[in-house]
Design brief:
By secondary structure, this protein is mainly alpha-helical. It contains six helices and two strands. A hairpin with a 2-residue loop joins strand 1 and strand 2.
């Protein structure tokens, strides 16, 4: 026979740890999850014989076509380094360059569907596992997860900017003089 509950109110399941422990667990797991995602991309890049940056670029292009300068900023690369990444991906048939329909002076990078088919066998099992886990979540829980992930990305972007502003500037950022013009 189960032991009677000594906590006030109806029992709704196992006791949760105190809030401070939950917050510490979320923080620790966030770091581990980020590191695991990087290791997964490194493993896939290694299996395909591709640089990690190329794999990361393809991940960004999953959201749709993008300008090279936007890809460079998101990857933290100089425009020159981004050109080399795009040259490799284009030679390998992963991306195509085309004129921007809104401004023909610019180009847009589009991932080739065949390139995604090459990557799918490596990323699909992980996506299936996560989708199975998320399928048990309510809409409210999914909103919470999505909000948390977005907040984490925003916080990381803000910290990157803060670190670069205080320390050695990254090659993608030009140093500004006191009056706001390029130095």
């Amino acid at each position: 026979m189960p032991e009677p509950s000594t906590s006030p109110g109806p029992s709704t399941g196992p006791e949760l740890p105190p809030r401070s422990e939950l917050l510490a667990g979320v923080a620790a797991e966030g770091s581990r999850q980020a590191a695991a995602a990087v290791r997964l991309s490194i493993a896939i890049a290694h299996q395909l014989g591709m640089p990690l940056t190329d794999i990361q670029c393809m991940g960004l292009l999953a959201a749709g076509p993008a300008a090279p300068s936007d890809l460079a900023a998101q990857l933290g690369l100089t425009t020159g380094a981004m050109t080399k990444v795009l040259d490799r991906l284009e030679r390998s048939g992963f991306v195509a360059r085309s004129p921007d329909p809104a401004d023909r002076r610019r180009i847009v990078i589009t991932a080739d569907p065949e390139g995604f088919r090459v990557l799918t066998p490596y990323y699909a099992p992980m996506a299936e596992k996560m989708n199975r886990h998320l399928s048990g979540c309510s809409d409210g829980e999914l909103r919470t997860v999505l909000d948390f992930m977005r907040a984490g990305r925003t916080a990381a972007d803000e910290e990157i900017a803060r670190i670069r502003e205080q320390g050695i500037r990254h090659a993608t950022r030009r140093r500004r003089a006191a009056h706001g013009t390029p130095a």
